[in-house]
Amino acid sequence: MHRVRTEVDKAVIGQAGTVTGLLVALLARGHVLLEGVPGVAKTLVVRSFARAVGLDTKRVQFTPDLMPGDVTGSLVYDARTGEFEFRPGPVFTSILLADEINRTPPKTQAALLEAMEERQVSADGVSRALPDPFLVAATQNPVEHEGTYTLPEAQLDRFLMKLVVGMPERDAEVSVLRLHADGFSPRLLTGVQSAVSAQEIRAAQDAADRVQVTDDVLGYVVDLARASRQSPSVELGASPRASTALLAAAKAWAWLNAQAAVTPDHIQTMLMPVWRHRLQLRPDAQMEGVTADAVLASVVQQTRVPI
């Protein structure tokens, strides 16, 4: 984690939490939704992260006229052979940057469902496996809603984490300007080198899977999920899939911290990024300004922690 952060910091300053979240999702074999206003380096941090972990990456700019085949690939007629052949789409990469995913209609958004869940693409009755490792990093703008399509709950549930990319602190913003004043080009990513290999990442994924979890910690995750469903501000609480996602992220975070077992602290650290996009608040709570993060903070305070 330190080596990856060091490399990404050469291009992106003040987003250590976002980089850590991407790394946790990669080790947990999950996907990430990045939410932030324009200009906070959402795209740049993903491109820099992909280079730092030594993985191939492709970027898709989602637009209202984008078709599912433009993402997954399509059958193309070959006049020389007289047959149709499959032409892979940009999803056949290790890290797919889905830029402004809420700008494309649900039909195209749903084209990613099979790829995200099954790690494969089916066309003409043939299933084609995606590279390993594979991560979808999607971005969306929370303040501009004209011409956007809200992600359905089933699509949101496929994202392991939702990371909120905020404005940098003053010192970090000064460092960003200094970086650009010295001639840094965000298009070239000069100086960012690969810090790990794909083999190391796969080994780290297997190691994270082997992190131990006690029955008390499993019960703590279930108690948190049940408490979220009973909150008066929540219409739809954390599902069993949300609990398994939280457990996977906590195991990856424990391994990154050189811990052999998951503790309640690891669960609490991963709770908000893993569950904030899975809670559906009641309309009256939304009108009162209640947020999912506030609900989750209350759930953590009210749930007994196993000793």
Task: Summarize the structure in words.
The two termini are 29 Å apart. The protein is built from 14 helices and 11 strands. Helix 1 crosses helix 3 (42-52). The chain is α/β, with parallel strands linked by helices.
Q: Determine the number of helices (DSSP H or I, runs of at least 4 residues).
A: 14
Physical arrangement of strands within the biggest beta sheet: 2-5-8-1-9
- Helix vs. strand class: alpha/beta
Number of strands: 11
Biggest pleated sheet: 5 strands, parallel
Low-confidence stretches: none
Strand content: 15-25%
Order of helices and strands: HHEHEHEEEHHEEEHEHHHEHHEHH
How would you state the average pLDDT, rounded? 92
Helix amount: 40-55%
Write the layout of secondary structure elements.
Elements: H1 2-8, H2 16-27, E1 32-35, H3 42-52, E2 57-61, H4 69-72, E3 73-78, E4 83-88, E5 95-99, H5 106-109, H6 111-118, E6 120-123, E7 126-129, E8 135-140, H7 153-156, E9 161-164, H8 170-181, H9 198-209, H10 215-230, E10 234-236, H11 240-256, H12 264-275, E11 280-281, H13 283-287, H14 292-302
Parallel strand pairs: 1-8, 1-9, 2-5, 5-8
Antiparallel strand pairs: 3-4, 6-7, 10-11
Helix pairs in contact: 1-3, 9-11, 10-11, 11-12, 12-14
